[in-house]
Amino acid sequence: MNRPEPQNQTAVSSYRARLSITMMLVVLALTALGLFLAERKVDIESRLDLLQDFRNELATLHGVREVRQAALAERCQNLVERPRIHAALEDNAVDLLYPSARDELRDVLGGGNERDNDALKAKFYRFLDGKGGVIVPAEKADVGQLAGSDEKRLALPRLTKDLQVGYLLRRDVSAIDEILTMPIISTETGEPIGALCLGFEAGELVHHRTGEIRSGIWVDGRLQLPGLTKAEQDALDAELNRQLARRSSDVSLRIQLGGTPHLLFQKRLNPGSLYPEAYEIAIYPLAGAHARLWQIRRHVIIAGVALLALGLLASHFVSRRLSQPVEKLAVMSEEERAARERAQAALATTSAELQRSARFSADASHQLKTPVTVLRAGLEELLSREDFGPEVYHELSALLHQTYRITGVIDDLLLLSRMDAGRLQIQFEPVNLSQLLAEWMDDISALPDELHVHLKTSIEPDLMVLGEKSYIAVIVQNLLENARKYNVPSGEICVAAAKRDDSIYLTVENTGRPIPLPAQAHIFERFHRGGVGENVPGHGLGLNLARELARLHGGDLRLVRSDAKWTEFEVRFRAVESANAPKSDLAHNSTARYPSAHPA
Amino acid sequence: MHRVPYALILIFGVTQGAFGQGSVEGRVTLPEKKSAPVATKRYEVVTKGGVLATDPPLGVVYLEEAQGRPGTSVTRQVAQKDLGFVPALLPIQTGTRVEFPNQDDTYHNIFSYSPAKRFDLGRYRKDERPFPSVVFDKAGLITLRCDIHEHMRGLILVLDTSHFVITDPDGRYRLTNLPKGKFTVKAWIDSRTTKTQPVELKDGSAVHVDFP
């Protein structure tokens, strides 16, 4: 296995990093969610706890007020049944009202002696007339002290048959009084003819809280709560005024007091009353809740960190597990890619070279053939003239011979280039090799022979090989010409053809100088001439061409031996009888481009 | 006993009649009777919407004189009987002393916060002698109450005239022995309603004045 490319390694590690980051994000989100939920839970719980506390306090307050109201109702009932009170109200004898009620109401006012009952003792009382206006008593001694301006604020816009609850901030003593105003219903008419207004101390009811919890009453746009600094007072008043102006149904409010958070509850004390709105305000410090919140927050964060660490560890393993195959894949794909690229590069190079050489051969052949033909025609023209000397004719004849040589070379080049380009199609058919050899023997015998070479043959009759006759003839011709060319005077040529197994072997032996051993390996290469002298005609393509053609025919050409006496070549053809091989195989072979023995 | 005032009125009327011959008679349209008629008629003062009147309805018709006459020194009585005032409605001339005899077996404490006369007789019993009494020296309507029995109501109409009469249950009245001259006849129907009619009396003439 090769090392993966750096680029790939980066991809794998980034994949792993992404996986880790994702897991981290998930854990972070979970931690955040946990924190959020925990905080919400604490917040809601503490809020509910405090709200419950607040409601309990209010319930207590409500209980006290109910007792008061019951007592007051009874008192009023008694009062309105008093004929003197009735007479005073009905008979325009308002001046006699307070004197008439004095005895009746004496025990309602707290004398200061019975401390245990003080909450139920009124601080003052006043009567309202039939229109809700305050009936000012002539003698204030027996009705409780009340400043004139405060007295006026007891008035109601109208009388109803219901008890009215109000809260009066007495500016002179900075105290809040709870006002209970009970209508006096006429027994004659059933309508309210006046009202009895009793003032109780409200502070005692609402300020006796324990610990840090503080409560007060908000009335007249101002909060009455002991122990507030001026700044706190102003801030609270502003906040409450804003809150209450909105008629918000939310009973709780988060505020900052002295730098620490507090929860503020408010509840209207006198819903539906004709008196100005008053609210019970309770302020709870959230320090305890905050401490608990911090504790829980710490726990959640610790849990989150632990979870994160665990998650990271897990994600590390998981990502490794997950990324391993990916890594492997990446490595493999990288190797495959490299191999493919190499193969493609080699293929491209090979292809380009082949194309180039093929094109070169084809171009050269075609470019050369035309001038050679022109040249030959010119020479033949000259030969046909009769005004030259015999030396000239001899020279012309030699030149003409050279043109035939050139044509042969060009034809060979053409053939080779077609083979190289893979364009050579062999039309396979049975060829009678015996007959073909016999014809060539006759031709060679007919040629002028300066060396007086003896020709011996040992050819089985009617040897049928598979191939195209013209190309087989080229092979035979090349071998026979070589055997003649490289012979010694009075040498011998032995041609033998026989069938062995599924092949037919043609051997051509000739006497002559042996091919040097180092050159033997190169004799099938193009333009190799085996170190022969220039006097030997040839162009170094014949053996190469013959071997290529033999191979295209499914056979081969090899040098069997080359010693002091004999040089022997052997060609192997496929016999027709053995040509039962599938056509497709043959077709494949026929179109296959055989690798050249010497590229470039 | 409750017929005594009527007898007194008649006597009084007759004695006054010596001074003049004129008379006014007619009918005051009284409110519808609210309760079914009962055999033994007993009048009481009721309040409806803050308005005091008798039930069954009765009116008082009187002649408003141009110049006030000096008060009389007669004495009348409003008794407390069966936790009620008898009579329930008593018209008197200013200066009249009214005695309040208690004819029940329980205490009564008659008082009035009415602007025309405020008084408080305190608690007293049947055997209280002399009868607790009050002189009414200022004209106006007096609401009588009992501090012990809050439902008790009585009315005394104090008038600056000696010529007055209570209508009968149908609203008919007759004022006699009236002097000559131009007067205003008034009909008191309840604490808020007093109707007026001008009248010119000649010697011996009888004028008919209705108060619809």
CATH architecture of chain B: Sandwich
The largest sheet of chain B has its strands arranged as 8-14-13-10-11
The oligomerization state is heterodimer
| H-E order of chain A | HHHEEHEEEHEEHEEEHHEHEEHEEHHEEH
CATH class of chain B: Mainly Beta
Instruction: Report the sheet-strand fraction of chain A.
Output: 15-25%
- Under CATH, the topology of the domain at 48-288 in chain A can be stated as Beta-Lactamase
Low-confidence stretches of chain B: 1-18
Largest sheet of chain A: 5 strands, antiparallel
Side by side, the strands of the main sheet of chain A go 2-1-5-4-3
Number of helices of chain B: 1
How many beta-strand runs of chain A? 17
CATH topology of chain B: Immunoglobulin-like
SSE arrangement of chain B, N to C: HEEEEEEEEEEEEEEEEEEE
> Portion of residues in helices of chain B?
under 10%
Structural class of chain A: alpha+beta
Q: Secondary-structure map with pairings?
A:
The complex is a heterodimer of chains A (600) and B (212).
Chain A: H1 6-81, H2 83-90, H3 97-105, E1 122-128, E2 134-135, H4 148-152, E3 164-170, E4 175-185, E5 192-201, H5 203-206, E6 214-219, E7 222-224, H6 230-245, E8 252-257, E9 260-268, E10 278-285, H7 287-383, H8 390-420, E11 429-432, H9 433-446, E12 454-459, E13 464-467, H10 469-485, E14 492-500, E15 503-511, H11 517-520, H12 542-552, E16 556-562, E17 566-574, H13 583-591
Parallel strand pairs in A: 12-14
Antiparallel strand pairs in A: 1-2, 1-5, 3-4, 4-5, 6-7, 6-10, 8-9, 9-10, 11-13, 14-15, 15-17, 16-17
Chain B: H1 4-16, E1 22-27, E2 44-48, E3 51-55, E4 60-64, E5 75-77, E6 79-80, E7 85-86, E8 89-93, E9 96-99, E10 108-112, E11 119-124, E12 133-136, E13 140-146, E14 153-159, E15 164-166, E16 172-178, E17 181-188, E18 194-201, E19 206-208
